[in-house]
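Question (not urgent): is this output format expected?
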Amino acid sequence: MNAMETYYSRVTEIMLQVFEQEKNPMEQAAERIAEANREKQSIFAFGCNHAGLIALELFYRTGGMVTVNPVRAPGMMLEVSPITMSSELERIPDYGKVIFDGLPAKEKDVIIIHSVSGRNAVTVDMAKAAREKGLTVIVITNLNTATAVTSRHPSGKMLHDFADILIDNHGDYGDASVEFAGFVQRIASTSTVVGAAILTAVIARACEMLWEEGIQPPVFMSGNVDGGDAFNKAVIAEHAGNIFYM
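Got this back:
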């Protein structure tokens, strides 16, 4: 197989593992997200740097849940230069708590936190602060990596130590997946495509649960189809109390 075929094969293998072995926590996450919408509680999503791409994937898009709020904090979304600064910023103790304290989060809200290693201070502090405030913390991480590296948080804790609901993305150690004979570093990470699939599936299941209860799921219609703008204006108005990105 060439590298394209190898990558496709590995991603497919990981997807099968995830959707078979993580079915229960994914179902739990969907149930909690559906409940948050039903009870007018707020939903937040956070990750540092490339892990944060999953938070961006969830919001303001066709078929996406209107009530998912991405947490976009300075230095956390690949917007700094030099980009190496972003790796240093996510290791700063207490910055995660500063970010969390700036959110309009309340007890019984939900926060989704994504990190492959779960070792850096920002995500650990974010999860810790959320748990202390009484939020449900949904964690997506790579346990092959997270259980093999040491914490960079002063407490020695990892992100998954603060999970109410823990979903393993089943990626390879270090995330990259394709090997070349004689080359020390693997290429082609899987966490973005797999993480997006996990959470898109979870959101779809949460919407299904709401629909089965007779509740219209709060999702966006494409603004590029007829009627899309009017549909979106109405759903945003209906859920304005739980939307913080407008």
